Amino acid sequence: MPDRIKLAADAGFKGVEIPFPYEISPSVLSAAKESNGVEVVLMNSWQGDVSAGEFGVGIFPGRREEFREKLELSVTYLKVAVVNL
User: Fold this and answer.
1) In this structure, how many other beta carbons lie within 10 angstroms of the beta carbon of residue 11?
2) What residue segments make up the domains of the chain, in order of their start?
């Protein structure tokens, strides 16, 4: 994913979409963004278990706590990736 950010910067983009950044730490995301001088312009919340066909956990009534935890995780990433949060 840091490679994606660098490639976008090298191609002249000022912003980059990182749909699901959760495979890297927030600090790695922040460092990649800062060192390449780009802004993150799109980021999705936690998608759940994609291998099981999930593309979000907010729709499952029995998984409210997981949804809240993952939403907090998403906010953590947003705070390091997006300006003025």
Assistant:
1) 8
2) 2-81
Query: Could you give the CA distance from residue 83 to residue 66 in angstroms, rounded to a whole number?
Result: 27
pLDDT digits (tens, 9 = 90+) for 1-47: 789 999 999 999 999 999 889 999 999 999 999 999 999 999 998 88
Specify whether the CB–CB gap between 38 and 13 falls below 8 A.
yes
Integer Cα distance of 60 and 55 in angstroms: 11
CB atoms near residue 38 (< 10 Å): 17
Q: pTM higher than 0.90 for the full model? A: no
63, 69, 75, 81: CA torsion to nearest 10: -100
* Distance from chain centroid for Cα 60: 22
